[in-house]
Design goal:
Layout (H helix, E strand, L loop, with lengths): L1 E6 L19 E2 L2 E2 H11 L7 E5 L12 E4 L8 H6 L2 H4 L4 E5 L2 E3 L1 H8 L5 E6 L2 H8 L10 E4 L2 E5 L12 E8 L1 H10 L13 H10 L5 E5 L3 E3 L3 H10 L6
Parallel strand pairs: 1-4, 1-6, 4-5, 8-12
Antiparallel strand pairs: 2-3, 6-11, 7-13, 8-11, 9-10
Length: about 240
Amino acid sequence: MKVIILAAGRGSRMGEKTANLPKCMMELCGRTLIDRCVDNLQKAGIQLPEIAIVTGYKKDEIKIEGVTYFHNAEWENTNMFISLTMAAEWLKKEPCIICYSDIVFDPGVITKLIYASGDFVITYYTGYWELWSKRFENPLDDLETFKIENNYLAEIGLKPGSKEEVHGQYMGLLRFSPSGWAIIEEAIKLPMPKPLAKLDMTTLLQHLIKLGNTIEVIKTDELWLECDNQNDIEVYEKDYCDSLC
């Protein structure tokens, strides 16, 4: 099993903290986000040569020995999907787990994806409301729709009108099969809500659903954190350091 970590962005919402470092090099409870990510992947049984990091902004600051590197030279003008295409040679050959670099997760979530099947599989976090209540005065201001029907994703990434439209939180952890990647390569040739260069993962997933593809979902209640800005780091260092892997 191969894992592709998407780490090309600067993370401008971190402010001056990312003036000289990419977002994945931010520290949480004494360790960088990328170190935590790679370590938890290894704890799930993924070997270093099977872990790739897609770099972009300040690529030379990411120094993890033993991993494979891909690079998005157009990181400043493109979004996450284009970064993923830098690792297309992996995606075409065998199932790959895709992992955001600004999240903290339990190794058990990766194990669930390793043993999953299907062309498109994603995990979702059931403890999202408590977490978002710590991060935001009104969680619905930031949350997006995540609707599940019969263990498949029915809708993602839209503005929710109520908590009932959010059945869980997308975690930035996905698994694509080679045949799934082939479907994606055809799907992006069709009209989409966003230009290809600006395509994000949730918009891609919603696009796949609209085209009639099925996306399997796996729920988890293991600790998961999204590090979007400096306020998140401060909240987590206050409440979660003792719980982190």
